[in-house]
Amino acid sequence: MIIKPLTAHTVALLLACQILSAQESISARWKPLDNLATKAVASPDIPGGSVCVVENGKVLFNQAYGVTDPKSTRRWEKNSPVQIASMTKSITSTLVAVLVGEGKLAFDDPISKYIPEYGRLKMRKSGAEVRSPTIAECLSHTSGFPGGTMGRLPDSSPIRTSDQAGVATSIAKQGLTAKPGTKYAYTFRGFAAVARCVEVVTGKRFPEILEEKLLKPLGMSSTTFQPNLELLKRHPRYAKRIASLDDEKISDFLEKKKRESKRFVNVGGGLISTPNDLVKFYRLHSLRGKIGDKRLIPEKAIAKLYEKQPSTRGYGLGFNLFGNAVVGHGGASGTIGAVDLKNDRVVVILTQAGSTAARPLTRRGMKLAREILAK
Fold first, then answer.
1. In order of start, what are the domains of the chain with their CATH numbers?
2. Fewest CB within 10 A of the end CB: N or C in the chain?
């Protein structure tokens, strides 16, 4: 029997079959998640969204579903930039960990060390003097400040019209509703205070130091408080509006956004980001503060972010603790991200449907993705 050598065409065909087989295997594994997402965006409550799953740096699942809004035919893209809302908190606390590693801040520092007004805090009801909350207490929602988000503030609130320093001062003057460290109350206020501390010790505005110390080293080029025109053209909430404006109105719109971000940025909920950027961010955590061979954050400093804080049910510093070494955060815009610190697994699910409406995709999708990864 004569065995003829394989031709180049045959070899290529065999390789193609092997690749196709592998793709079909992965597709079969992730089909339940694909089905869940497809069904979720069939609802008018969730026009569209994206789901990305990464393990050990390898993309296992990365799909986009639906459209940018119910009245549009524009497809949602795999890497569409979105308002990540409170997922921003994890990024802010990570920047603080960078500065802790550099010796510029300490998690146990009282806010009053950097903002004098916090040395004269009083309880709202009794008027009794009370100590300043620490940076850690502010990042864990146990500062003693009243709960609430910026979106619920009246237009007349000085917090809506002040700069970063003015906002921090206004918050101090409003007083506390609980003694620091004794009660969990989800609020933007503690994060705003910490943001001002960051500015005081670095001498730079928060967006600038965030870019320098965290976003640029990680290559998170589409994560910002101040999106440019190209980013807005891809943003589900802004793309349609931008397309309807002439050049002059676009320029005015961008200038207004720029003025707003120069005055104040919401470090607890104001960032725009993409799935690709968020995967880079979460992998910094699964790699315990390293980027490749370079250490960005000391392991002791970054590990502090995942420690359950006193008076919380399961919250660290800017991170929800989901159990089994899985940490992350959701956002009111209908977003969620999580990282399995032990197994280097990342899941990012983004919509702009609002947290309640998005749950069929965000919460159920996260649960299913983790179940599939565990098999």
1. 37-88+221-374 (3.40.710.10), 91-202 (3.40.710.10)
2. N
Q: What type of residue is 153? A: L
| Contact (CB, 8 A) for 260 and 270 | no
Instruction: Report the C-alpha gap between 255 and 209 in whole angstroms.
Output: 22
Pick the closest to residue 270 from 319, 339, 210 (CA basis).
210
Distance between CA atoms of residues 78 and 353, nearest Å: 16
> How do residues 317-354 score in pLDDT, each as one tens digit?
999 999 999 999 999 999 999 999 999 999 999 999 99
Q: Which of 29, 60, 66 is nearest to 48 (CA)?
A: 66
Confidence of residue 2 (pLDDT cuts 50, 70, 90): very low
Both tokens of 149, joined, read: 């988000």
Q: Residue 288 corresponds to which amino acid?
A: R
Question: What tokens appear for 110 in the block?
Answer: 């009282």
